[in-house]
Amino acid sequence: xxxxxxxxxxxxxxxxxxxxxxxxxxxxxxxxxxxxxxxxxxxxxxxxxxxxxxxxxxxxxxxxxxxxxxxxxxxxxxxxxxxxxxxxxxxxxxxxxxxxxxxxxxxxxxxxxxxxxxxxxxxxxxxxxxxxxxxxxxxxxxxxxxxxxxxxxxxxxxxxxxxxxxxxxxxxxxxxxxxxxxxxxxxxxxxxxxxxxxxxxxxxxxxxxxxxxxxxxxxxxxxxxxxxxxxxxxxxxxxxxxxxxxxxxxxxxxxxxxxxxxxxxxxxxxxxxxxxxxxxxxxxxxxxxxxxxxxxxxxxxxxxxxxxxxxxxxxxxxxxxxxxxx
Length: 326
Prior knowledge:
The protein has helices at residues 16-27, 57-62, 78-87, 102-115, 129-139, 168-171, 175-191, 285-298, 305-325; strands at 7-12, 32-38, 52-54, 68-71, 91-94, 119-121, 146-156, 195-202, 213-220, 223-230, 232-243, 246-251, 259-266, 276-281. By secondary structure, the protein is α/β, with parallel strands linked by helices. It has 2 domains: 7-123 and 287-302, NAD(P)-binding Rossmann-like Domain (Rossmann fold, 3-Layer(aba) Sandwich), CATH 3.40.50; 129-281, Dihydrodipicolinate Reductase, domain 2 (2-Layer Sandwich). The strands form 2 sheets. Strands 8-9-10-7-11-12-13-14 form an 8-stranded mixed sheet, with helices on one face. A 6-stranded parallel sheet has the order 3-2-1-4-5-6, with helices on both faces. The radius of gyration is 20 Å and the shape is globular.
């Protein structure tokens, strides 16, 4: 459902991610208007005069602006700031991970349900045309019965860009919580639940720091799944779904810019040539996520499914960490 109403939205936290991804995405949404920003240093001085600027979330909430807030602050602030907004009657789109622990996630979900407010989390890959196409092919039986899903997500995260992300108590974890959670959510989006954990490993870390790479195995919807992430490597991502009758491959599957190609291979190809290949524009992925959230707010019914899914992702990562520790 598309709504004709305009949702006023504020952004709390103007880091690199918000300025590079979220602000441009909002500008492309016809049903969302950026009305305010929250940043301690007021880096938003280049914004037009109709966009209000606040040094704290408390200032924003005291201004009685209505609508929604996009929480784009460090992980350890997600739960606290989400609850502050919900308790003031403000809908929330919170960046992933939902929180640094599953207890806080449940508190966020429960508060939103009690107050009948919309709460969603930034698992944007569900809105990627590439992943949606792969899911459609999978559901239409184009690879037969799915057997395995493999995901790889490499990226380079310099410590000076996000120093808090290298502290366990502030981030909730390292590469697995930061990027692996996207892979886990993508797999659950493709094949559903239940998830049964099989094992996990992380690289040795310095005291008080977090892992830079991790691998884990689990089944989702009965399909054996593999996740490998690394935060100290050049950007590269790949997703493959192997079935009894073929394989779907998306190189660059985590990209939300430019184009991505979804390929279908026969189960026993005589050569490495896809039998079907579709290139899609993934540059509107963040905009679609925000537009869909605005449409949900416009509707009269609050659905907690997306928030519960996001909370489950955090719980899965927590359990993987617990397996490693034991």
